[in-house]
């Protein structure tokens, strides 16, 4: 996902309400998220559906890595050679 461009991708909620279709088109075309503000504070982030799905997939992978690290730290891991033998013997 591309980074937010402060001059283009941070908009007041009232401006978003007035031109929803235009903003959705911008998000889809640029693949950049849009930050919506209310009274000068960020209240929501809009993200293209495909970019959101990619983020979700990356988060799932990170969660699996964190879980694996915790398992290794608690002694539940399998030695590399043992795993290799197990996989090759299948």
Attribute tags:
90 residues; alpha+beta; three-stranded mixed β-sheet; 5 helices; 3 strands; 16% strand
How does this model look, in words?
- The protein is an alpha+beta fold and 90 residues long.
- It is built from five helices and three strands, in the order αβααββαα.
- It has a three-stranded mixed sheet with strand order 1-2-3.
- The chain is elongated, with a radius of gyration of 21 Å.
Q: Poorly predicted ranges (pLDDT <50, ≥5 residues)?
A: none
Q: How many strand units?
A: 3
Helix content class:
55-70%
Sheet-strand content, in percent, reads 15-25%
- From N to C, what is the helix and strand string? HEHHEEHH
Query: What is the gyration radius calculated from CA atoms?
Result: 21 Å
Number of helices: 5
Biggest sheet overview: 3 strands, mixed
- Roughly how many Å apart are the termini? 39 Å
- The largest sheet has its strands arranged as 1-2-3
Strand pairing plus helix content: what structural class? Answer: alpha+beta
User: What would the principal axes of the Cα set say about the shape?
Assistant: elongated
What's the pLDDT, averaged over the residues? 89
Describe, in short, the structure shown:
With 90 residues, the protein is of the alpha+beta class. The chain has helices spanning 6-9, 13-18, 20-30, 49-73, 80-88, and strands at 10-12, 34-38, 41-46.
